[in-house]
Amino acid sequence: xxxxxxxxxxxxxxxxxxxxxxxxxxxxxxxxxxxxxxxxxxxxxxxxxxxxxxxxxxxxxxxxxxxxxxxxxxxxxxxxxxxxxxxxxxxxxxxxxxxxxxxx
Length: 104
Fold this sequence. Notes:
The protein has 104 residues and is α+β, with helices and mostly antiparallel strands. 26% of the residues lie in helices and 33% in strands. A hairpin with a 4-residue loop joins strand 2 and strand 3 (39-43). The protein is elongated and about 65 Å long.
């Protein structure tokens, strides 16, 4: 996986680049390439230079943006810790419900 920051005009000229219709991308834009020419896409998200900067990481949403294109949303730091705690609490509640007897 490689990422390069370049002018929006230069990025739009890349053969095979994917951008989501209707999205507004910054100028300059980050262009992420996976496997050389397997996938080349614009990326408008927030980035960290080292995972330690994130402290914690939690996926909070996954949606369809366009045909064949998915978007994931995540949070970091305190918001991630809160989301993880909330998920664990929810899992504990579901586990408790699964232990209930429905014989009556």
